[in-house]
Amino acid sequence: MTYDDAIAYVASLVNYERAPNPAQMREVPLDRMRRLCGRLGDPQRRFRCVVVAGTNGKGSICTFLYSMLREGTLRVGLYTSPHLEDVRERIRVWSRGPSDGARAYGDDWISEADFAAAIDRVKPVVEAFRTAGDTPTHFEVLTAAAFLHFSQQQVDVAVLEVGLGGRLDATNVVTQAVSVFGPIDVDHADVLGTDPVLIAREKTGIIKPNQTVITVPQAEAVAEVLRVACEAQGVPLLACGQELTVRIQQHDLDGLQLTVVGIRGIYESLDIPMPGRHQAQNAAVAIAALEALSSTGVPYTMVERGLAAASWPGRFEVVHDAPLVIMDGAHNPHAAGALRDTLEELCAGRRIHLLIGMSSDKAVAEVGERLGGVAVSATCSQSRHPRALDATILAKQLAPFCPDVHVMSDAVDAYTYLINAVAPADVIVVTGSLFFVGELRAALRRANGTASRILART
Amino acid sequence: MSQPTILIVEDEPAIRRLVKETLEPRYAIQEAVDGLDGLQRAQSVKPDLIILDLRMPGLDGLSVLRKLKADRQTAGIPVVIVSVHGETDMLLEGQRAGAVDHLIKPFDINDLRRVVSRQLPLAD
User: Is B114 an 8 Å CB contact of chain A?
Assistant: First the structure.
């Protein structure tokens, strides 16, 4: 099987990330993923796992933890979703020991050959299931491929991001050593509903006996669900703000400087190259997860270098200087609120122009309500994703919240116009769905270079 | 001597405006809103340079380029094609079809000025 064959095969499977009606997803049982892994020899049992759940911040927490683990001596895997530009971003392995913080773009992605090999191994099992009328999904197959790759690469620890929810997510076939929760709020309402308590129950469905559970500060009702779930399994719950604390020393467009008091140590003056106060809590729980994995304590340099080298493209990522261009896939109200807070703090007094594309299944009005007020204009656009909301409809929905709303359905045209038309002191914020941000980011990375600094950075 | 004339063939009004504002008044700018309009204006205006977007609904840029080159009246007009990343095949086909240069979106207006002045050097 060639890499292109593997991509085509994976694309032929039912993909709820791209389905027009993701609500059907409720019907996918976890049992099938268990049987799929069983037929593959249960590769997920050959390494320790940390599972990261939550509505937002999962990717940042995963990348902080993985980045710190990369500075140690263990072989480490990372499985995240969705991808921004390339499916291979989802499956990463670092096995070359401490890298002194030096990183190269894509240096840890699964190779095309290994991706093809993993899909080649999963395919016969998938086809056998298909014959029985029980075909696994795109996400199940990628998750199984990640497990096979991690096992084949003999990773010691894998950091796994939950795809959606928790209890029924394909990642929940693992027996993890640590569960980490980012902020729990409403998203994917058509699958998970709109009640944060019910959403929290789905997400805490990953908690199992004999593990450590770590969480960022949560709303009281959600915190209660977490406490009950931990008590039921007899496992400790460590909460940021209680058992561990974080203090922000500095916050600017280059990122944050923090001091974290973890469960085993104090880590002072840590630099994180990702702006946004919410990242402080994400970093703190990632440190606590690292401490929970270790039996001997964590060296300061591992934390310091790992956090300093962490990057999570498309999340408050500065890609151009004058005008300042920030890319942030704030696709739900909670994330939009965090983006607004960061913009209000770091870009106060500057004219902000939104370039926005959303998915049709998202709470567009609530996102608009949070972001519209900080901007002087909004240019509405759309990705080529099947669930992309038509730019004209988006404009109508944003109009009540934003003063100067335009439609430019081609995102690259819209970016080309804005980058040249706005004043150098202005700020352009590319936001909305991760698919939208990812498509535009890919275009920028491959363009001439003068319109973006991504090339130089990655 | 009168200014050189540039025809911009581009379906997005904001991009046409951007090109016009960047290149005027040194050049006279004519606008075409789609491929068909572009062909007709190329024949009637006989511009000194055509800036042609490849991705357009209806008659796409490559078809326009081939028709321009097949028509004796317009075959000699230099054409700069405009594309986005990932359309390398399209760019190569455009070069084969006779385009003299290309721009990749998103471009900076300095990229635009550079490409235009390579084709139409102006005396100061």
Answer: no
**pLDDT for the residue numbered A457:** 42
Side by side, which strands form the sheet with A377-382? A317-320, A324-328, A427-432, A352-357, A377-382, A405-410
Cα distance between residue A330 and residue A314, in whole Å:
9
Where does CATH 3.90.190.20 sit in chain A? 317-457
Class of domain A317-457 as given by CATH? alpha beta
Task: Report CB contact under 8 Å: A413, B15.
Answer: yes
The length of chain A, given as a count of residues: 458
Cβ contact, residue pair A447, B18, below 8 Å: no
Relative orientation angle of helices A300-309 and A278-293, to the nearest 10 degrees: 140
CATH architecture type of domain A3-309 = 3-Layer(aba) Sandwich (3.40)
Digit-coded pLDDT (tens) for B89-116? 888 889 899 999 999 899 989 999 999 9
- Minimal CA separation from B73 to chain A, in Å: 31
CATH code of the domain in which B22 resides: 3.40.50.2300
Task: Classify the complex by whether its ipTM is higher than 0.85, answering yes or no.
Answer: yes
- Min CA distance, B119 vs chain A (Å)? 19
**pTM, to two decimals:** 0.87
> What pLDDT does residue A100 have?
74
For chain A, the residues whose C-beta falls within 8 A of a C-beta of chain B are 406, 408, 410, 412-417, 419-421, 442-448, 450-452
- Of the candidates B22, B106, B109, the beta carbon closest to that of A412 is on B106
Residue B96 three-state SS: helix
